[in-house]
Specification:
Blueprint: H1 2-22, E1 26-33, E2 38-39, E3 45-47, H2 51-59, H3 67-74, E4 76-79, H4 89-97, E5 102-110, E6 113-122, H5 130-171, H6 176-191, E7 195-202, E8 207-216, H7 221-227, H8 234-241
Antiparallel strand pairs: 1-2, 1-3, 1-6, 4-5, 5-6, 7-8
Amino acid sequence: SAGRADLRDLTTAIVQYARVSFGAISVTYWPWDAETRRFLPQLMVADGIPEDDLDYYRANEPRPGHVTFLTLESDYYCVPDIGTEPLTADAMKRLEHSGIRSFQAAALEIGGEKVGVLYVSYPYKRSYGRDDRSALASFAAYASWLIANTRRLRRADTTQKLAQTTAREFALGGDHQKTLHSICAHAIEMFDCTNAVLFRYDQSSNTLINPPTTAGHLENDALLRECSRQKPDDWLLTLLRAEAPVIQENVGTNESLQ
């Protein structure tokens, strides 16, 4: 979408400029979504990192306790020599392949809203002093302002487009399935997610209406449609009865989803 493209163009420009400004071998930006409280690997951008290493980093999304989370919580983190860090052999191999020997990282935040973490990396050991931290903090503050404002404008524009689309389709008595797909498509743009699924529910019969409406990428769309032919199980009924959004950060830890 145009909104997502605008944000990616901006963050790409930020990492490119930061790499030149700090004389770094690479710069990486990990976007953070404060609403879902998770990093967004599909929107991570970097300059100076090989593409296969980027794929590895995206596939290994930061978890609590990871350096990226620690940076988000403490605002700043530095590693003068990765050889002194308790890293896994695979992580060390990836960093070495990327040419990284040391780095400093800063949380991007504006008005109390965290928008991500910026890594500035070097191919040699180096110490980081007060001036290094101050320079990165100043850059991070400006980058945070740019990203936060672009996100707000994009979401406002997405909401307006969705309202206009649904109002027009309902007013014209158009295809409701098209309207439902518009809702899913706009949800992907608004929440920066990989896919969206909309289940319609018939309360009188306690069943889902087949097929569900989807947008984005689903690895097993056929299985999803098969599941929709069944009556809602306890997990789905919990979603239906919930008064607030339900967030599942790791579906692999939810026994009811197995």
